[in-house]
Amino acid sequence: MLRTDLPALDRTRLSLPVRAVRRGWLGLDKITVATRYPFGLLRAWSVVDTGAMCLIYPRPSGSPHLLEQGEGGAADGIASGSGNEDFAGLRVYRPGDPIRHIHWKAAARTAEVPLKEFSGSAGRLWWGR
Question: What is the DSSP letter of 106?
Fold first, then answer.
């Protein structure tokens, strides 16, 4: 329940907290607007059907790391499963993995979050600029 006091003939914008239990489209159910103005003896109310919808995304976990594209030089090296050129397979997501490598179509069908692994020249890790 959200309570607020508004002066007469005033407008305000309110944020209604809604807990999402799964990702996808979330519709806002009907809400009740009520008042007990002026003396609290009677309650005037109305049910409002907003028809509002929002799209829920999974919250990123861990800190995202930025990778610099490998130039193919000797400093980059070749590492199996840690490159950025050829698809090598899928594995389970671990915190700190690049979010752009998540296999979203497979994640929608399973409880685990699969991550695409690539082989080829590995990028260098950037800690910031």
Answer: H
Nearest C-alpha neighbor of 101 from the set 80, 120, 111, 87: 87
Spatial separation of the C-alpha atoms in residues 123 and 67, rounded to whole Å: 6
The H or E element that residue 36 is part of is none
72 bridge partner residues: none
Which is more confidently placed, 25 or 125?
25
How far apart are the C-alpha atoms of 119 and 127, rounded to whole Å? 22
Q: How confident is the model at residue 82 (pLDDT cuts 50, 70, 90)?
A: low
Q: With CA atoms as reference, report the closest residue to 102 among 23, 26, 27.
A: 23
